[in-house]
Amino acid sequence: MAEKNERDKPLEETMEEASRQAEESQVQEPRMKEPQTGEEPARERTELEKLQDEVAALTERNLRLAAEYDNYRKRTQRERDSIYPEAVAATLTALLPVLDNFQRALEAPCGDEGYVKGVRMIYDSLWETLKNMGLEEIGTVGEAFNTDSHNAVMHIEDDSLGKNMVAQVFQKGYRLGDRVLRHAMVQVAN
Fold this sequence. Notes:
With 190 residues, the protein is an alpha+beta fold. Among the domains are: 61-133, no CATH class; 137-190, Roll (Nucleotide Exchange Factor Grpe, Chain A, domain 2), CATH 2.30.22.10. It contains three helices and six strands; from the N terminus they run H-H-H-E-E-E-E-E-E.
């Protein structure tokens, strides 16, 4: 048993030493928590500066996000605005051969007046609809030749017409606003 007490003794001494160290650390902790005049305001100022920096970063991020959204909104509006005129122009260009065929049908000789009247009504209705969409005819006899709206396929000398005047229209041209959908195919004098 004597051996057991000697073995336990170092263990007891170790435990006593550990409890003494714990008491000392508890005594020292309150001293460490006491504010020191120079360090505490510096730490608070640092936390305040960190918070201010975080607020500034979030504000900048918010402004950038708002600007990106505004740019996106404007870009999509421009795209929408440009798509509609393109779609209208493509539709009107696709309908021009139909309009030409109705004009040819009206010019062709026909003995049935009811048939001619029906074709005329369809042509007039189609032409009014296209005009309401902004379609305009270009290329009439007697107007000055313009390379932007006319396509000269023939040239004649005629003293009764002025220089660079349209003498004959082979195929009508059409424009939508400032955009030429089809150039008028014409004969130019002088």
